[in-house]
Amino acid sequence: MTTTPASPRADSVDSAHSAAEAFLRDFHNRLPGRQSVNMEGAPSADGRTGYQLLAAEVAGARRVLDLGCADGALLEVLAAAGAEELAGIDLSEAELAFARRRPALARADLRQGRAQQLPFPDDSFDAVVSHMALMLMNDVEQVAAEASRVLAPGGRLAVAVGGGSVKGEAMSLFLEIAAPYFSAVPPERSLPRLGDRRTRTREGLDELLTPAGFEPVSWTTVVIDMGGAPEQVWESLTDAFYDLAALDENQTARLRTEFLAAAPFLLDTAGRIPAGMHLNTATTRLR
Ligand SMILES: C[S@@+](CC[C@H](N)C(=O)[O-])C[C@H]1O[C@@H](n2cnc3c(N)ncnc32)[C@H](O)[C@@H]1O
């Protein structure tokens, strides 16, 4: 979408976007199918996963597009809920290869590409969804404009974004222990800036979405629990935090040792530690 940059500033913004997308694509090409395993094992208080909560927000929609669909876990839930025409787009071909193996998605239109440049005609969906992906996207105004373009009049948009860890539980503990490791990463190893902070708040999303023709969002927050045995929680945290990609093997091993040494005080009688994360869901429709 971005063509010749108009100024040096636009040039550097554009290359930051490309660096972020290249990082995400490479990360997911190396480790496909990992996010969904964690999320499918992370129920909210009523037992539903983030995928099921988001699918409920667009119940009845016949044609649904998932932005940042990865291995198709949300699309599979949508198929089970009765959506008939499913499409997904993701930066990572390896994630999409996993999605293509799901029998429920045999007829889904799965594309490698950017949510900022959707390869779909105008007015072609009743709903657009995105689970834990919008918050990683740059140039979000363009994503909003594209979602608006491909939605039919009155079409719905439902996104789930991370809302931070539950204090006093394992994800918080991990972040406390990891903070000095992450802040010591030298500039040459540091990650590109991912996403736009406005996608993480209700006000920010309204600021991004209303110019694209959407109504103010409805906003819901739940806690999903990625808890389990300490080793298992460590594994899911290592999949959940991109920042770990900036650490070398020794640093990761030291962080793991520190985390596993600190985690036992959280153990319950079943040998499990809780690892809650807030999940925010924003739902809106075209005006
Ligand atoms: C944290 S994963 C979430 C995957 C999936 N939605 C889920 O919850 O299981 C984020 C996904 O968004 C994709 N992604 C990030 N930025 C994107 C963009 N601009 N266009 C398309 N996909 C993107 C990544 O490749 C990655 O697969």
Structure description:
This protein has helices spanning 8-30, 34-40, 50-57, 73-80, 93-100, 140-150, 170-183, 202-209, 230-240, 249-262; strands at 63-67, 85-90, 109-112, 125-131, 151-165, 218-225, 276-285. It has 287 residues and is of the alpha/beta class. The protein is globular, with a radius of gyration of 19 Å. The protein starts with 7 loop residues before the first helix and ends with a strand. S-adenosylmethionine is lined by residues 21, 24, 28, 35-36, 39, 68-70, 73-74, 89-92, 95, 114-116, 131-133, 136-137. Residues 65-158 form the Methyltransferase type domain. GO terms for molecular function: methyltransferase activity. It comes from Streptacidiphilus cavernicola.
What is the level 1 CATH name of one domain? Alpha Beta
Q: Mind telling me the C-alpha Rg?
A: 19 Å
DSSP E strands, number: 7
Number of helices: 10
Average residue-wise pLDDT: 94
Strand order in space, largest sheet: 3-2-1-4-5-7-6
Our measurement of the CA-to-CA distance between the termini, rounded to an integer number of angstroms, reads 25 Å
Overall 3D form: globular
The biggest beta sheet is recorded as: 7 strands, mixed
